């Protein structure tokens, strides 16, 4: 019974991380029409940047929670600015060529991942900002994992508010619908492209910093979560934010439930099959309306 | 005719290679032939039909495991083992293709990537069949030509076998892309709605390209399993498909010769560089890809053709 509950809670927590990742992918795809294969590398970069910030702050401040909060702000800011720069230098010149763009983001993945491998070989550990556990139904579950799910949800809410209630959100939704018309009515479309890409990869970095205390921080850490996020985006429906959250919950909870009966690897495979089935039933995604 | 002549010259040169190269160099040439065939199979789908697949590692892996398991369990001849691999990989491609080609555009990339992840995970979880990360170990290929026998470090006559099979496959693929079918595939790549308007059944065409390409990839995998003495589940990983994409793009997509050329250059570069700077190699690949994407979308073959035209321009 405890095992079942533990797996379900794990699935629930990871669902929010994957949803955060998927929202970044979705945002970039919706506005720039780019499939960002390097998204997992930005996730990894977020975790590594967070680790670096925490290491630098270690001697300066004793309040670890504050340090962690600074890492949670600083790392995504750094990654977001890098994303802005990369969009401008690498992706802008090959705009509108889908295949070429995917290959360019794959190249970015190789460069970022191997660059980190060169500079920071091995595995790093990040301590959680809050220790201890909460007992529910006789099972002690780490407090930080609750915090992780809560913070992810908070960032998702922020993103939603940003997209629905601000001028940037309005402009970004306009560009998503029709870039040329948006340009014609005076929206700074190139800036929206750059900022959206930066925002998208910054979300991946947020997920990276948040998960750093519960996974080993290493150069290859973004590979597994990348495909999970892609699946969630597709099954949820390209362009649909709510769909991505629902799909993430289904995928991760299914993975957790299947782990009760089989080995984790087989459970992952079974969960993927389930997602494939969902896609067969609804090819446009759970909440998708877009034909493509 | 001139092209056929060029093919004959290259084939003859490669046929006498065992007399000129040491066993180590010969084994690299063998790998270039096998992975080059894989890249050519990839080109059929990516270069000619315009479908970016990240799932071709599945068919390479199934071809390899089909041939290896057949060889280990039943000990049939080489031909039957190869056929088992091609059949397994080709059938899987035909079945998965049914779903994949219907998920248009960006969906296709994700569906193929997910099949690669799925097969990788399934192969990992069935350790008693696939051997997991440790993989399966096969003996040297039971092939002897006039006392010359194949070993694990020295391909020996296995090289000639691979050369003949790869050469025949190349001719078949070349005939295929020159046939009306190849033209129809290019038509789908250039403008799918217009192809539909012309009366082409584009879904069937894409499926056909996918299945044939999967079969060719499986053949490359089967050859790999029989000559490499060892295979593992890593063959299923989507990064193996990405390798084929890199080589195809580097050599020149939609040319068949380009992917083979790209594979060769990359393998020789990797051999040369890995000793000096092993971890830096992927960075170099990444930078090369960025440069190709930005400035030379036609790849190496495109550059060579461009140079040729410039020279001809001078001589006039």
Automatic annotation (TrEMBL), chain A:
GO terms for molecular function: transmembrane transporter activity. Keywords: Amino-acid transport, Cell membrane, Membrane, Transmembrane, Transmembrane helix, Transport. One of its GO terms (biological process) is amino acid transport. It comes from the Bacteria. It is a multi-pass membrane protein. The chain crosses the membrane at residues 12-32, 41-58, 64-86, 98-120, 143-163, 183-210, 230-251, 258-281. Pfam families: BPD_transp_2. One of its GO terms (cellular component) is plasma membrane. The keyword Secreted does not apply. InterPro entries: ABC_transp_permease, BCAA_transport_permease. Its main location: membrane. It is found in: Cell membrane. Belongs to the binding-protein-dependent transport system permease family. LivHM subfamily. This is ABC transporter permease.
From TrEMBL, chain B:
It is found in: Cell membrane. Keywords: Cell membrane, Membrane, Transmembrane, Transmembrane helix. Signal peptide: none annotated. Its main location: membrane. It is a multi-pass membrane protein. InterPro entries: ABC_transp_permease, LivM-like. Pfam families: BPD_transp_2. CDD domains: TM_PBP1_LivM_like. The keyword Transmembrane helix applies. The chain crosses the membrane at residues 45-65, 77-100, 106-123, 158-177, 207-226, 238-269, 275-296. The keyword Transmembrane applies. GO terms for cellular component: plasma membrane. PANTHER family: ABC TRANSPORTER ATP-BINDING PROTEIN, HIGH-AFFINITY BRANCHED-CHAIN AMINO ACID TRANSPORT SYSTEM PERMEASE. This is Branched-chain amino acid ABC transporter permease. It comes from Fraserbacteria sp. (strain RBG_16_55_9).
């Amino acid at each position: 019974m405890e095992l079942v509950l533990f797996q379900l809670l794990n699935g629930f927590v990871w669902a929010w991380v994957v949803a955060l990742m998927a929202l970044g992918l979705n945002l970039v795809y919706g506005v720039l029409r780019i499939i960002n294969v390097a998204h997992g590398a930005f996730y990894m970069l977020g975790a590594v940047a967070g680790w670096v910030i925490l290491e630098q702050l270690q001697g300066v401040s004793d309040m670890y929670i504050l340090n962690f909060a600074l890492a949670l702000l600083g790392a995504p800011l750094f990654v977001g600015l890098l994303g802005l720069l990369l969009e401008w230098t690498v992706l802008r010149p090959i705009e509108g060529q889908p295949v070429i763009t995917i290959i360019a983001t794959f190249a970015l993945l190789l460069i970022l991942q191997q660059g980190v491998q060169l500079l920071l070989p091995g595995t790093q550990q990040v301590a959680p900002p809050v220790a201890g556990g909460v007992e529910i139904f006789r099972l002690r579950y780490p407090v930080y994992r609750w915090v992780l799910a809560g913070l992810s949800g908070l960032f998702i809410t922020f993103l939603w508010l940003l997209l629905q209630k601000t001028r940037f959100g309005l402009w970004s939704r306009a560009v998503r619908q029709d870039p040329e018309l948006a340009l014609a009515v005076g929206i700074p479309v190139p800036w929206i492209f750059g900022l959206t890409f930066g925002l998208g990869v910054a979300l991946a970095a947020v997920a990276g910093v948040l998960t750093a205390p519960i996974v080993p921080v290493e150069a290859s850490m973004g590979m597994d979560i990348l495909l999970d996020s892609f699946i969630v985006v597709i099954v949820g429906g390209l362009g649909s934010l709510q769909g991505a959250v629902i799909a993430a919950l289904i995928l991760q909870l299914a993975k957790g439930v299947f782990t009760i009966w089989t080995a984790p690897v087989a459970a992952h495979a079974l969960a993927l099959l389930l997602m494939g089935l969902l896609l067969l039933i609804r090819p446009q995604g759970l909440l998708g309306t877009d034909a493509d | 005719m001139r092209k056929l002549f060029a093919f004959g010259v290259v084939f003859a040169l490669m046929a006498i290679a065992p007399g000129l190269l040491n066993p180590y160099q010969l084994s690299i040439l063998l790998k270039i032939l096998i992975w080059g065939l894989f890249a050519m199979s990839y080109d059929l789908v990516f270069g000619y039909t315009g479908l970016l697949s990240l799932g071709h590692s599945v068919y390479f892996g199934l071809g390899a495991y089909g041939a290896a398991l057949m060889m280990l369990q039943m000990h049939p001849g080489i031909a039957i083992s190869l056929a088992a691999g091609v059949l397994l990989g080709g059938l899987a491609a035909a079945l998965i293709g049914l779903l994949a080609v219907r998920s248009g555009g960006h969906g296709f990339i994700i569906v193929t990537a997910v099949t690669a992840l799925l097969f990788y995970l399934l192969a990992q979880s069935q350790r008693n069949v696939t051997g997991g990360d440790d993989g399966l170990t096969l003996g040297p290929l039971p092939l002897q030509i006039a006392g010359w026998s194949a070993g694990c470090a020295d391909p020996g006559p296995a090289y000639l076998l691979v050369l003949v099979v790869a050469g025949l496959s190349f001719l078949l693929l070349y005939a295929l892309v020159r046939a009306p079918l190849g033209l129809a595939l290019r038509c789908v790549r250039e403008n799918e709605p217009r192809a539909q308007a012309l009366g082409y059944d584009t879904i069937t065409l894409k499926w056909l390209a996918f299945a044939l390409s999967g079969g060719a990839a499986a053949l490359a995998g089967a050859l790999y399993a029989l000559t490499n003495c060892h295979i593992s589940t890593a063959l299923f990983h989507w990064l193996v498909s990405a390798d084929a994409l890199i080589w195809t793009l580097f050599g020149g997509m939609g040319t068949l010769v380009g992917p083979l050329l790209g594979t060769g250059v990359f393998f020789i570069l990797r051999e040369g560089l890995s000793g000096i700077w092993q971890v830096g190699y992927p960075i170099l690949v990444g930078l090369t890809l960025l440069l190709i994407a930005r400035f030379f979308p036609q790849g190496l073959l495109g550059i060579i053709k461009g140079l040729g035209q410039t020279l001809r321009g001078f001589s006039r």
